[in-house]
Queue: 2 jobs
Job 1
Amino acid sequence: MKTIIEPFRIKTVEPIKMTTPEVRRRLIEAAGYNLFKLPAEDVLIDLLTDSGTSAMSAAQWGALMQGDESYAGARSWYRFERAVKNVFGFEHVIPTHQGRAAERILFGVMVKPGHVVPSNTHFDTTRANIEFAGGRAVDLPSPSAKDPAARLPFKGNMDTAALERLIAEVGPEKIPVIMLTVTNNSGGGQPVSMANIREVAAIAHAHGIPFYIDACRFAENAYFIKLREPGYDAKTPLEIAREMFSYADGATMSAKKDAFANIGGFLTTNDDELAAAERDLLILTEGFPTYGGLAGRDLEAIAVGLEEVLEEDYLHYRTVSTAHVADGLEAAGVPVMLPAGGHAVYLDAKRFLPHVPPLEYPGQALAVELYIEGGIRGVEIGTVMFGKNPHTGEERPAAWELVRLAIPRRVYTQSHMDYVIEATAQLYRRREEIGGMRIVQEPKFLRHFSAEFEWIEG
Ligand code: F0G
């Protein structure tokens, strides 16, 4: 069968408010041409993030009603702990309100000023938490990630030769932990192979350095291993996920992604001493170690989500439906990053708007026009996000000019996605009318969230 059907029926619906391009033109102007400043109600298809935006299943909503809200030792805590251990396999499980809280606690304990933390590519919050602890976050993406159009199976891998060089250069004693982000979100949502996980772990352990996985999208990564890596096609996603974590010393997780929860996260490790220090920090800001900033009902929703996300029918639909968007766009001539990742499709604004120079923010112009054209909200990942050094004020073109269209889990149907392909293709046909933008005002840090823009005339 060519048609992929969503492996679920819809029981509850949320209306979408319809708008026209004329109305959206006024709305985005009033928002200073910043998509983060739009009321979500004025968006037709919201592809800003796949984080916290999943549709929960009937089983998850049912589990919510069983939430035990006891302060200490709630039944929901034990259920959550069992569910995490079943997949991740580590001794200590520390719940947090979301992924970045787990990062802050981990790096707060492990990272000292002068330390260096390598990764395939750090997510912004991971990088910021390392820097906040006085460390330096270093990205070592595989050279195969450089060409956005190259259809290679594991473009999320870490460059292990570069890792060896970095260890030799700074010394293993300066590296408190080596991370791998699966899938590699900031690197196009591309997966990391089991061979690369094994190799990074071996290098880390040969130097006595702990190896951690940023596991936000671990199930999508496990499924790509099943599809693309020799020797894994007969294994279940659960078996593959367990093998991935078996090489690691711990993991951080945002349950807002591959646990289908609207909030939540955790930190997990086998190290008793480290876990004790982490729990001390947890109590200071997140809460008691059996709830860590979450309600008992959230712990229940995550426990059920961690099982559902590893179901093969779901993962098949998830990866095929994301690829459907990337392939549909490619067929219409729209430049996209290939192959499709698990959670998002990335438009290549450099090739979409070659006449707009990087310092006129082609990614931002494209994201704004896509909203006007189709009411679709994506996010610029380019010079607006990464071009400005907040310490020196210097501005430089980023390595990429991308617009990420992140697909919330189980939320939109194929007809919504066909509409996204159609609207983007229509915009592509009138790309020459789209000009550059300038920033009217911006904050010192993380400017993409609140900067305001205007069109450059002419
Ligand atoms: N690590 C990765 C790889 C992420 O993608 C995110 C969040 C985090 C950590 C932090 O988790 O949001 O629960 O605190 N990514 C979202 C996104 C925000 O849109 O990509 P959090």
Note: The chain has a mean pLDDT of 96.
Job 2
Amino acid sequence: MSAQVETERNENAYDFRAMEAKWRPYWDETKVFQPTGDAPKGRKYVLDMFPYPSGDLHMGHAEAFAIGDMNARYFKQCGYDVLHPIGWDSFGLPAENAAIKNDTHPKEWTYKNIETQAESFKRYAIAADWSRRLHTSDPEYYKWTQWLFEQFYKKGLAYRKDSMVNWCPKDQTVLANEQVVNGACERCGTTVTKKSLNQWYFKITDYAQQLLDDMEQLEGKWPDRVLLMQRNWIGRSEGAEVRFEIEATEDQAAESFTVFTTRPDTLYGATFIVVAADAAFAEQIVAPEHKAALEQYREDIKALSDIDRQSSDREKTGVFTGRYAINPLTGAKLPVWASDYVLADYGTGAIMAVPAHDQRDLEFALKFDLPIVKVLDVEGAEDPATSGVAASGDGVLINSGELTGLPKAEALAKAIELVEAAGTGEGKVIYRLRDWLLSRQRFWGTPIPVIHCEDCGEVLVPEDQLPVLLPDNLRGEQLAPKGQSPLAAADDWAIVPCPKCGKQARRDSDTMDTFVDSSWYFLRYVSPNYDKAPFDPQAMSEWGAVDMYVGGVEHAILHLLYARFFTKVVRDLGLIKHDEPFKALMNQGQVLNGGKAMSKSLGNGVNLGEQLDKFGVDAIRTTMIFASPPEDDVDWADVSPSGSQKFLARAWRVAQDVTSEPGVDATTGDLELQKLIARTVHEVQGLLDNGKFNVVVAKTMELVNATRKAIDSGAGAADPAVRKAAETIAILLSLYAPYTAEDVWHALGHDTPVLTAGFPEVDPALLVDDTVTAIVQIKGKVKARLEVAKDISEQELQELALADAAVQRSIGDAEIRKVIVRAPKLVNIVI
Ligand code: ANZ
Ligand code: ZN
């Protein structure tokens, strides 16, 4: 029998089902995923964005959690005490809709799905501390969500106001702007309307500047694009507020109002004023003969979202109010128009229009034949009136009184001085960020702990009466909102005595947006069973902020912003010391099939359970990790779980063949293999630190192949370096193929969990003589020096160069045109 045939037959003994059955209980018994509290290297808190219990786990979870887990496992191997908890974001609409349909209570659907997912997570072997499991819909959790709301309220950070909100007539609920897609409800497709409602808000705008400033702490540790999205969302604008007077008429008095402008330098070019058509101010000033037209216009724009209103492809619309305002610097008389392209709730809801230099104003001026006056000489710019293109560039001021002759930047400062001196305005910074509308008129969420009393007004539910529990006796149709929240209709729940005066009062019947629940769960995990506060101060001082947060880029804005806001408020309450919740962030890509996101309608979905049954957990995890760097998409049509399975079987077989005893002195073994092990470990460490997880799998494969060769036709199965190689393979596998790793480790004669083996140390002597310094250049400049093997392949050298953090930083968003590799010494990247 040839060696080849024998190997293949024996690899068939790789039985993933047996391994999965064997090692799961072992990890429970050894509690290896629980923090010990005494690791000499310190602590690391690794967190995956917690799941929503929509059904069983899917391929997206499989990818995200393989990546998150790899972080946790790596820290653990490095000797840190690792906190890696798991829980569920378990309030939300789908549970309620299921309950209405099935005539049940939402908790039935919710907790059944949680159990299913929990079982799958355990099978998937995520290295989670199950003793810390939490569900945001548990009273033990939402009690503290309510408690936090009360602290926010006391600080003036939770308040109610009337506002026009997006309203879905079918779901009978308020929608956030992001939940309105092309004017329709994201969930059910019904055309969204506007409705004035009294709603609860968190005053996140108080923290706008801090949210911007503290991003400095995240630079280089969060993906650049996420930081950019946060920055844009907060949207800081510097400029001025300028006050204008509207002239009195025979029937109407004079009025004064302010505009916000980022371009006070263009004041001389303002030729008309536009006020938001839907603002109360428009109604207040409109001349009697224009009132009907304005009313009609307001009706017409009601259904449009803010995004539609500001879309640059829509033709401008508007109505004249019949009134004129006076330019405070020039005395010119400017007609006042009302339009939808000015938003009521941004800036002051009114603008001075400078059509020569602002595209939207230009389009409006051309449509309604309003004057266009150039006040900035912009080099190369065409005439706005004839070209239809506003001169928005830099230049020197013209036709602008005292500002004439100044370059734009100076004119900006000077214009602010002028209006300030004239008492008609002042420099001003505003933010695009709005306060967070947190109330929902739905059942399955955290009840807002407020009681409304005719005499006392809003009264917080006393802390010792928290939590305000959701009623258990509502089900099915009773949960369907009928213009008001189902809780408002439940009198036996809603009617209570006022905590202050005892008079009959009503509970607030709104529940909180589920983003509130997920804005502090990472704080709860440090002590999820603590019952005297949201978290135990002692445990918090030990764990603090999350060291590595892993999740989808779809949460780049809201969830992360809200979590950052909560963290800052909780800090200001004196409960924690850190400013930012997540020190580092890793976004995983999506799992696609045939280039498209998996979906029912496309019929390209892949069932995770079936994949696990067929190939085993480890093969699926390995496939996910090997397919691409974590942040890139994985296309299931391009991967090979059976290839992963064969690799794992080969690795497993190598370990079975080792004949030396544990503890043999590897330094007496085959030198070439020793060197390869050292190089592999060294490189892998760099790859792990830079999040190049896919290459770690490739490196393990190389080591497996080399070890196989050493056994079959080199040093032989008894060589101490062969054992060292097999043990190293087990440790690398423990990061992404946990069952195989544990099996291999025990087959090699160890009787403690492989995760406690420790990341291998490298003897630097083994690295030196075989390595040379490779230089990585970009645009002719040296960006990195890499210690690489003398015999490194061009391919490998290129991968290493592109994986280098400094190199990536200098490439940034630029496109790589060409990579010229002269192994082993030079890589030249053309961008
Ligand atoms: C005059 C002007 C001249 C402007 C010019 C721009 C260019 P950002 O950067 O987004 O803050 N604006 C102010 N309030 C508005 C509102 N509620 N709805 C729509 N547009 C509004 O933009 C600020 C600029 O957008 C302001 O500066 C104002 O137009 C307009 F050459 O004033 B500007
Ligand atoms: Zn009262």
Note: Confidence is low (pLDDT under 50) at residues 1-9.
